[in-house]
Automatic annotation (TrEMBL):
Provenance organism: Paracandidimonas soli
Lineage: Bacteria, Pseudomonadati, Pseudomonadota, Betaproteobacteria, Burkholderiales
Segments traversing the membrane: 177-198, 226-250, 277-296
Protein name: Cell division protein FtsX
GO CC term (a single one): plasma membrane
A Pfam family recorded for this sequence: FtsX_ECD
Length: 302
């Protein structure tokens, strides 16, 4: 165990010395990876911060069933019970709005009170407001339910505005795909940058590696400092990217705060939780080590 620790300590010190010998190149490589990592971190912050707001917006899509004029109060209640019984898996609640209540609500609005006062009677129908349960495919379920309810006896018209739900889902789906493609691009940047860095280091240390092999050094011993080099590059770039992303959110939150305040709301972007950031840092370190191993294996065959 002590020998294993001594070997890894030696490899780590060798990697640090190699980085210190070329400070400008090392810093440039770390910054390239860090800036590439900043974009997906900010994108993930926007998506994660928007999720609670979107859940509040789309938590209860509704259908409004306007009943025929000849439907009685008893038939109205029976229809509401039938909806709960037959479609309880997708319906959260059914609210009955009598025509008299709807008329009074309109009369309470000054813009409608004068116009409604000249009507001889109540032209409004009874209505049932159907709230749907939250689900992954709200728009599709709302469309299917609207088509089924339109054929019920006593139902004159079904009003459904599911287009905004569909658009919202499409926007979120597109954003997730874009973030995934951005993450793939970052992976390629990390691989290419670390591969090229290790390649230059391997060519620079060509004679040293050859001598080490002559005195009996194993391939694992030769590769280990380069693996540490790739991992440390990934860790340093990840930490810098997290710091840059946190700084970038400050002006964004200030602008979004003014915009949200104009709508009487509060909204702020937040970085992903610490466990997610730690997991991402470890993933980048592993990716850097893998790229380093690939590079040193290809470029030290001499």
């Amino acid at each position: 165990m002590r020998r294993w620790l001594r070997q890894h300590h030696y490899a780590l010190m060798v990697s640090l010395r190699r980085l210190a010998k070329q400070p400008f190149s090392s810093i440039a490589n770390v910054l390239v990876i860090a800036l590439s990592l900043t974009l997906p971190i900010v994108g993930a912050s926007i998506l994660l911060s928007a999720q609670p707001v979107l859940r509040e917006v789309s938590v209860s899509p509704q259908l409004t069933l306007f009943l025929e004029q000849n439907v009685t109060a008893e038939q109205n209640r029976a229809l509401a019970q039938q909806l709960q019984r037959d479609h309880g898996d997708v319906i959260s609640s059914v609210q009955s709005i009598p025509k008299a209540q709807a008329l009074n609500n309109l009369k309470s609005n000054p813009g409608w009170s004068s116009a409604l006062s000249v009507l001889p009677g109540n032209p409004l129908p009874d209505a049932l407001v159907v709230s749907l349960r939250d689900s992954e495919n709200q728009a599709e379920e709302a469309d299917r339910l609207a088509a089924d309810l339109a054929d019920l006896d006593g139902v004159d018209t079904v009003q459904l505005d599911s287009e905004w739900v569909r658009r919202l889902q499409a926007i979120m789906h597109t954003a997730r795909i874009g973030l995934g493609l951005l993450g793939l691009g970052v992976i390629l940047v990390v691989l290419a940058t670390v591969f090229n860095t290790v390649r230059m280091q391997a060519l620079t240390q060509r004679e040293e590696i050859a001598v080490a092999r002559l005195v009996g050094a194993t391939e694992t011993f030769v590769r280990r400092p380069f693996l540490y080099l790739g991992a440390m590059t990934g860790i340093a770039a990840s930490l810098i990217a997290i710091g840059v992303a946190a700084l970038a959110l400050v002006p964004l939150n200030e602008a979004l705060g003014h915009l949200a305040a104009s709508y009487g709301a509060q909204f702020a972007l937040q970085l992903p939780d610490a466990s997610s950031l730690l997991l991402a840092t470890v993933a980048v370190a592993i990716l850097g080590a893998a790229a380093a191993r690939w590079s040193v294996t290809r470029n030290t065959r001499f």
